[in-house]
Amino acid sequence: MVAVLRRQRRGPILTPSSLPCLGKMPTINLTEGCAHGCVYCYTQGYSGYPGRERINLFDNIPELVDAELLRKRKEIHRVYFSPSSDAFQPVPEVLDVTFRTMSILLAQGVQVAMLTKGTVEERFLELFAKFPGKVFAQVGITTTDERLRSALEPNAASVSERLETIERLMRSGVTVRARLDPLIPDLTDTAENLQPLLAELGRRGVRSIAASYLFVRPAFARRFSKQLAGIMQVTAAAESWDWHRFADGVRGGNMIGIEERQKRFARLAGLAAAADMEMHVCACKNPDLTMSSNCRIAGPPLPASYPADLPLFQRRQ
């Protein structure tokens, strides 16, 4: 059972992420911490991380977003949920705040983009159906093996629930991609694991996937290696992986080397092509690879004229 600690958020809400792929787009984190409890989650190293089985929920975000939209100085095209959490955690209080916030944005003509490993309830599907072409989703999924999924992502949606979510989102007019991230070397990136996954995605109409490999913070690398060894008897000496910085020198972590990534991504690209899918390698996390590109984590590219250097909102005097 996850403990929900309600908090009041202060300051601007619709602020861009430091990640280059989200640098021009307002983003929203509804919580600190995440109820999904993924063992590989990099946010465990954040100073605001409340610990396992606890989340801090900012339940005043809908009101703050509404107020910011009223005093905006420039047009807001799209808002992304959520760089450091998941908007569809299996917690009723979180889902209520997510629904209220997305309803306000869509009603004001603002597009919504999201990445989730959760279950999308019917009320969201009904909301999204009212705004065709305004919602963009990536569903995180790396395996069809429920035992493996449960070990890596204990409180996230099951494999069958995520596949159903993809179908239901598509029927509601949402543009959907599958996100194979994080791939874990020799565990989730094998042909034996990926071929059935791509087949299941293809049967549900998925024709585009995004992919990237696991990265871990140095302080977390040794602990993660032990966790993974205990879960699946897989040797993953993450602490011996090279330090790798993201695009534009932003953040980074330990990740397998460039030659290994190039080889493994090429193998995945071949499997995707055989399944009649296009594959995009996350350019933010793989700026050193020539095959990397815009992974569309937040939907199609924004207009070239969309300004990134102006304050989003006029401050109250």
Give the rounded overall mean pLDDT: 87
Overall number of structural domains = 1
Query: Rg to the nearest angstrom?
Result: 19 Å
What share of residues are in beta strands? 15-25%
The global form is globular
Q: Pick out the low-confidence regions.
A: 307-317
Regarding quaternary structure, what we see is single chain
Q: Under CATH, the topology is which?
A: pyruvate-formate lyase- activating enzyme
**CATH architectural label:** Alpha-Beta Horseshoe
Percent helix: 25-40%
Largest sheet: 9 strands, mixed
Distance between the termini: 44 Å
What structural category do the secondary elements indicate? alpha/beta
Order of helices and strands: EEEEEHEHEHEHHEHEHEEHEE
Number of helices: 8
Task: Provide the CATH top-level class.
Answer: Alpha Beta
Give, in spatial order, the strands making up the sheet with the most strands: 2-3-6-7-8-9-10-13-14
What would you note in describing this structure?
The chain has eight helices and 14 strands. It is of the alpha/beta class and 317 residues long. The chain has one domain: Alpha-Beta Horseshoe (pyruvate-formate lyase- activating enzyme), CATH 3.80.30.30. α1 runs parallel beside α2 and α6 crosses α8. The chain starts with a strand and ends in a 24-residue tail after the last strand. The C terminus is likely disordered.
Kindly summarize this structure in a few lines.
By secondary structure, the chain is of the alpha/beta class.
Set down the secondary structure blueprint.
Blueprint: E1 3-7, E2 15-16, E3 26-28, E4 31-32, E5 54-58, H1 61-70, E6 78-81, H2 92-107, E7 111-116, H3 122-129, E8 135-140, H4 146-152, H5 159-171, E9 175-183, H6 191-203, E10 208-213, H7 218-232, E11 242-245, E12 252-255, H8 258-274, E13 278-282, E14 292-293
